[in-house]
Amino acid sequence: MKYTLYCHRIFCFNFEQSIAFYSDTLGLPLKSVNHELGWAEFSLTGGTLALEQQDPSDEEARVLVGRFLGISLQVENVNDAYAELVSKGVIFQGSPEEQEWGASLAHFKDPDGNVLTLLG
Question: Are 110 and 116 in contact (CB under 8 A)?
Fold first, then answer.
């Protein structure tokens, strides 16, 4: 059986704010939005990043939002991307750090506190 990765889902409570963050602040191309379903897709090289709205009163949903996602967005230069995003108000958990295996990483939060990684 052959598998193809369709998307990486990010669960959020603040759907409209999250759409604005990923499209306007990060600059990801918005592919589609379904407000009724609380679903939005962004085009990335190699796949799709999807937002899925959750109900904040749902106890099970609260576990899905505001956590480390394990999603790394690769950029040409982490330091330049970091500086640009900081100037746009993005909250980072620290400055970019060079890893012993050669890349630099910087972790940042989206409006719901989900943690993503810049990789370069």
Answer: yes
* pTM listed for this prediction: 0.94
pLDDT of 67-120, one tens digit each? 999 999 999 999 999 999 999 999 999 999 999 999 999 999 999 999 999 999
Instruction: Report whether 65 contacts 11 (CB < 8 A).
Output: yes
Are 86 and 94 contacting, i.e. CB atoms less than 8 angstroms apart? Answer: no
Task: Report domain extents, the chain.
Answer: 7-119
Find out if CATH 3.10.180.10 is the number for domain 7-119.
yes
- Give the separation between CA 71 and CA 81, rounded to whole angstroms: 16
Cα 94 to Cα 108: distance, rounded to the nearest angstrom: 8
CB 71 within 8 A of CB 115: no
